[in-house]
Amino acid sequence: MISQQFEYSAPATLQEALDLLANEGAKPLAGGMSLIPMMKLRLAAPEQLIDIGRLRELNYIRREGEQMHIGAGTTHWDVESSPIVRAHCPLLSETVSNIGDIQVRNRGTIGGSAAHADPSADYPAAFCALEAQFKLVKKGGERVVGASDFFVDMLTTALESGEIIAEVIVPVEQRGTGVSYQKCVQPASGFAIVGVAVRVSSEFVRIGVTGLGAKAYRATNAEEIYTSTHDAAKAAAVVADGADSNSDIHASASYRKHLARIYTQRALKEAASRMG
Amino acid sequence: MSSRKEPDNPQQDEATPKNKFSRRGFLSSVGITSGALTTGLLEPEAEAAPVAAKVVGPGEVPITLQINGKPVKISVEPRATLCDTLRNRLELTAAKRVCDRGTCGACSVIVDGKAMYSCTLLAIDLQGRQITTLEGISTEKKLHAVSKAFVNNDAQQCGYCTPGFVIASKAFLDRNPNPTFEEVKHGLGGNLCRCGTYVGIRKAVLEAAKELKGGSNA
Ligand SMILES: Cc1cc2nc3c(=O)[nH]c(=O)nc-3n(C[C@H](O)[C@H](O)[C@H](O)COP(=O)(O)OP(=O)(O)OC[C@H]3O[C@@H](n4cnc5c(N)ncnc54)[C@H](O)[C@@H]3O)c2cc1C
Ligand code: FES
Ligand code: FES
Description:
The complex is a heterodimer. By secondary structure, chain A is an alpha+beta fold. Chain A has helices at residues 14-21, 35-40, 76-80, 83-88, 90-96, 102-105, 110-116, 123-129, 147-150, 220-229, 232-237, 253-273; strands spanning 7-9, 26-29, 48-51, 61-64, 67-71, 133-138, 141-146, 151-153, 156-157, 164-171, 178-185, 192-200, 205-210, 217-218. Chain A has 3 domains: 7-51, 2-Layer Sandwich (Uridine Diphospho-n-acetylenolpyruvylglucosamine Reductase, domain 2); 56-171, Uridine Diphospho-n-acetylenolpyruvylglucosamine Reductase, domain 3, CATH 3.30.465; 179-273, 2-Layer Sandwich (Enolase-like, domain 1), CATH 3.30.390.50. Chain A has 12 helices and 14 strands. In chain A, strand 8 and strand 9 (156-157) form a beta hairpin. The radius of gyration of chain A is 18 Å and the shape is globular. Chain A starts with 6 loop residues before the first strand and ends with a helix. The relative contact order of chain A is 0.12. Chain B is α+β, with helices and mostly antiparallel strands. Among the domains of chain B are: 80-134, Beta-grasp domain (Ubiquitin-like (UB roll), Roll), CATH 3.10.20.30; 138-212, [2Fe-2S]-binding domain (DNA polymerase, domain 1), CATH 1.10.150. Chain B is built from 8 helices and 5 strands. Chain B has helices at residues 24-30, 35-38, 82-89, 134-137, 145-152, 162-175, 181-187, 198-212; strands at 61-67, 70-76, 108-111, 114-117, 130-132. In chain B, strands 2-1-5-3-4 form a 5-stranded mixed β-sheet, with helices on both faces. In chain B, a hairpin with a 2-residue loop joins strand 1 and strand 2 (70-76). In chain B, helix 5 crosses helix 8 (198-212). Chains A and B meet through strand 1, helix 1, helix 2, strand 3 and helix 6 of A and helix 1, helix 2, strand 4 and helix 6 of B. Bound molecules: flavin-adenine dinucleotide (FAD) and FE2/S2 (inorganic) cluster (2 copies).
């Protein structure tokens, strides 16, 4: 499989990249772990690739006050192995270590995963539970979009043409919060058939679900029940209510919903056991 | 990849395109597909480009790769994967092209110390990185400790997945010199063996870990 021909540019600065991306037909390339296979299968045929994977400006992990800022070009491995992330955002460490294989984690990036918006990707569950914010930049503009508005549909995000994710912003986890990511893995690819990310403390609970529907979502109905009952089983029972569940050779729609309930319960219990 | 010819001008700066390329806006405004560039239909654009970054391709572009410690100059189309470049252009055939979509690990190489799928990397994107293939760490005369352990443990049948496994195992042991059996299983999850020799492979990696005594790279 060989992709269609394209032009290539590796700009040295973010500004140059944004200038190039303003041209019609240009597409950003980060780790290429999703884009290159798509291009080889001719599901994508960009005329020009702008390689943003080499930009140092997009490769950082910083704590600023009560927020963590992670550059879009940070690889899964760099997030997984970061002591700052482990200390201040353990849900991300746990989620990212579940992505695919080491060869993919060594190369794929947080921004690429978010932008690709695969309905079975792991990160989006954590992004929903963390109410992550995405800083989006384009030539002459910048805006911040929350996870619930960022993920629009299967493989579709709020990104506009010429716009890229510059960084992902997540809260620093407060003491007393327990987190867990529980995933039913599709063994060949490593993708999530269903994945559930949970954060729970005495004050709040957040539940993010991936793999079930066209896009990851925050299960506010299950959160409400957990807040009032502290009963993981009761909360999990409603997590898939109203979801338009995917169905494929790996799992039917009803089995996926069943998995979502089981994995929500597991994640809630494990997160609760890690509070303190 | 159409030709095996060497770069016209090997002295050229590695990021320099063969000719100055027209910009996307120009192409789309006149409705010429990018294929026109390879056939030389388009002259270098006279007008100053609005951006400094160079746009190269879609035809062959001279690049320099650092492979097994040596600079290698070659011309590739931007769409050429590292796997195809190694195998078809550089006679480095240890990395195998099997699934060609980042699933099986047979094409694994080490880039800047990290195992990666060479079928899912663009060669042009690897300039300035240190690429290590199996040829660079293990030769018939001097087998790497991991290769030796594969032999000792009968860790292959048809052998087609073996080079990828050996490379992935080396990168894994560099990161985790003292793994448990479970860690080996998880750490090599990116490599598949259709003949099902996993048990032998995992034993071999544990044996190599002992042999390397804390990860010296042989
Ligand atoms: C074998 C295999 C197994 C995998 N298993 C899993 C898994 O278990 N779980 C999982 O979650 N993922 C999995 N993945 C996907 C992986 O996480 C990808 O790395 C990720 O989805 C894409 O990141 P990338 O940096 O490689 O992006 P690329 O492939 O370079 O780009 C993907 C898309 O995002 C766009 N893009 C990239 N960066 C930006 C940016 N900063 N702003 C805007 N747009 C951008 C590109 O234009 C493209 O459309 C797997 C991939 C493979 C090949
Ligand atoms: S050939 Fe590259 S992973 Fe299978
Ligand atoms: S030995 Fe045949 S595929 Fe592994």
